[in-house]
Design goal:
With about 300 residues, this protein is an alpha/beta fold. It is about 50% helix and about 10% strand. It is built from 13 helices and 7 strands. Helix 1 (about 30-40) links the parallel strand 1 (about 20-25) and strand 2.
Length: about 300
């Protein structure tokens, strides 16, 4: 069954979740922001758990007056529990809650992992919990600005059929838009986001370092308009937005790049070559890179790879 599109078919009030007490297990960057968003929608944060000093400070900033308690106490106090812990921690955490009898029948248990769907919550489901996977496709800072960024943010949602309307309503109440992801596609979905966002940060950070080495005083000011335009073009036009020496087949320029990177930033060579090869493949496939120019270019990239080994 295809759920209604929130942009064209608003949630009926009778399908909205009742006002809920909300708890957060793991006061990292994500949990407090989601709880604060739910608070703006009328729900009531009642408990949060956090261990590190930064987690404690973050909880105090984002959720003032909400008591800091143990994870088991969070489950005891809340109707809706946000499990906002690292992916690798989540399965063991859920099993631990089940083994200690911390889960109450009818309790909404929501995790925010991109990797997992609701199967990871199966032990809790058998204990009577209502499982939801709500992953915001957003990067978080751990500051109040995150609540504003949730407006219009897509959420990767996986839920049992009978909970789909509730999942959709919660996402919309946080200002987001639900995007339904099948259980078997969660890892692929998350890999796509990591490729686009996490690797982008690495690429931008490396580009800024190289510009500083080249004598640019304000690399952020130089890159901002360029990268903003490139991102906009890519989102609008896909591979048709490819430009630069690789897409043009300018083998001499690429060879010069590789040579300079070996001298000044050898740690970036492997990444440059990998991205250049991927760009060349896409440019060739879409007719942007002329086959007669591709041979020399691919030769430069192959030689560079051999020298990197």
């Amino acid at each position: 069954m295809t759920p209604p599109n929130p942009r064209s078919e608003p949630i009926d009030p009778k399908d909205r979740p009742a006002r809920l007490t909300v708890g957060v297990v793991g006061a990292g960057r994500v949990g407090p922001a989601l709880a604060a968003s739910l608070q703006l929608a009328g729900h009531r944060p009642v408990a949060v758990s956090g261990v590190s000093d930064s987690s404690v400070r973050r909880a105090a900033t984002m959720l003032p007056d909400v008591p800091l308690v143990t994870p088991a106490e969070v489950l005891a106090r809340a109707d809706l529990v946000l499990l906002t812990v690292p992916d690798d921690v989540l399965p063991g955490l859920v099993e631990g809650f089940v083994e200690t009898g911390s889960i109450r029948p009818g309790q909404l248990l929501v995790h925010t992992s991109g990797r997992f769907g609701t199967k990871v919550l199966d032990p809790a489901l058998r204990a009577g919990a209502l499982p939801l996977a709500l992953h915001p496709a957003m990067t978080f800072t751990g500051t109040p600005v995150d609540v504003q960024r949730l407006a219009g943010c897509s959420f990767g949602v996986t839920a049992p059929e009978e909970l789909r309307l509730a999942a959709e309503a919660l996402v919309i109440e946080m200002g987001g838009e639900p995007e339904w992801i099948a259980e078997e596609n969660r890892a692929l979905y998350h890999a796509a986001l990591a490729l686009g966002a996490n690797h982008l940060v690495t690429l931008v950070a490396e580009a800024m370092e190289l510009l500083r080495d080249a004598g640019v005083a304000a690399p952020d000011r130089m890159l901002g308009p360029l990268l903003g335009a490139a991102l906009d073009n890519a989102l609008r036009s896909g591979d048709a937005a490819l430009t630069g020496p690789v897409a043009r087949g300018d083998a001499g320029t690429v060879a010069a790049h590789v040579s300079e990177l070996r001298k000044h930033a050898p740690q970036t060579v492997a990444g440059y070559l990998a991205m250049a090869r991927a760009t060349a493949d896409r440019a060739l496939a879409h007719g942007l890179l002329k086959p007669e120019l591709a041979e020399d270019l691919l030769g430069v990239l192959a030689t560079g790879s051999e020298e990197t080994r």
